[in-house]
Amino acid sequence: MVAWPSLAQLRHDLVMRVRTSTALVDECLTRIAELDPRLGAVLALNPQAGSDAAAADEQLRRTGEPLGPLHGIPILVKDVFETRRIPTSFGCRAFRDYVPADDAEVVRRLRSAGAIILGKTATPDFAMSWLSDSSTGLDTVNSRSEWHEAGGSSSGSAVAVAAGLAPVALGSDTGGSVRVPASFNGVVGMRPTTGLVRTRGMAALVSMQDTPGPLARCVDDAAVLLEVLAGKRWDEPPRRLESYRLGALVFPDCPMEWDGSEQVSAVFDDALARLRSCGVQIVDRVQVPKLGDLLRDSSPYLVAAREDIDAFLASRGGRSFSDLYEEGVFPEGMDLAELLATRSSPGAQARAELQAARSRLRKTVVDVMAGQGLDALVYPTVRVPAPRRDRDRLRLPSRRLPVNTLIASQADLPALTLPVGRTDEGLPVGLELLGRPAADAALLSLARLVEHALA
After folding, report:
1. Catalytic-residue membership of 153
2. Which of 171, 317, 389, 447 is the most buried (most CB within 10 A)?
3. For residue 342, what pLDDT is reported?
4. Is 120 an active-site residue?
């Protein structure tokens, strides 16, 4: 793994002309050429990346002024975001020749901030899986072990950051698609508050729950990227780590058909013990009343996913999800049972009931946090490490992967995962922090302190 400096340091070096953007892009392209044939993280490269970097260097030489907070920094973008002049397949071979005329809003903001769009990263078709299967044929593997799963759906972005193919990457999160692969690959991934970052030009899975999100090597880099994506800066008053009160959340039991849950629990418990030794107040076994029922009732997939995907597909060529399925587009191993069972037009009443259930979930979680004076909830991001590709992922469907990420997604709350240790096989384990409503800046401030304490 290349030891990239932080985004702040890279920007400083570029502005002071210690480095050039051209050299940074060349370094990334060299690493992609060397490592990506094994990793399968990068789906397409931007043929203009070199000239874009040269233009950034020339502009700085000529004016002395940087283009923005990401001046000259290469970034990889998940292939669910439309990018002008670069093929955008949404992870689906049916769109392999689609080259958008315009950028997605987040890509436009990255370019406006001075970033160099290096290329597009692998994703399952339309971000529909927590595993990395895709009809594009790209075989994405875990950055730590080619025998293990990369996670989905921001598979390529997480692997690319972990392997140092680029300093940072952009992903998207519906039910955990930033945080699951971040956990499996040992990087930082954040799901911002739903609606904080605009989704125009992003492939829809569940529109009410979809959000772009950063993947980075450290919390500070995730914060820099999120400020650009959201178009705002935060000035959060500093706090000491020992002033925080965290609640270790208990989730409903689920069948543990995937291997490794005991090792994840051991790494997580050790992380909590280290935080306690730093003075953090941790409330054990915090419970959200009827959490299992609340998560079931607020799940949007059976109500909204089919309709939202069809609406997006109709705006990009006219075919429907059923059309693509009947054409045999999707990979054979992809778990599509829920989408196939979903009504294509559920109606306004079903959506209204779903929104009411989501509001109940959010209120219940927030009331628990407020009642116990908690700044955040904490738990393992996924209850198991990355599954073996030759065994677990072929035996069990993606939807039964024991993730803990749904609570933030369905309650519209910000959440961030960061690596806190490894299993005996060297597979990363992620710890997720769930924040209060719209408290993204406060969550990032806490995450920085936790990261430093556990480093």
Report:
1. yes
2. 171
3. 67
4. no
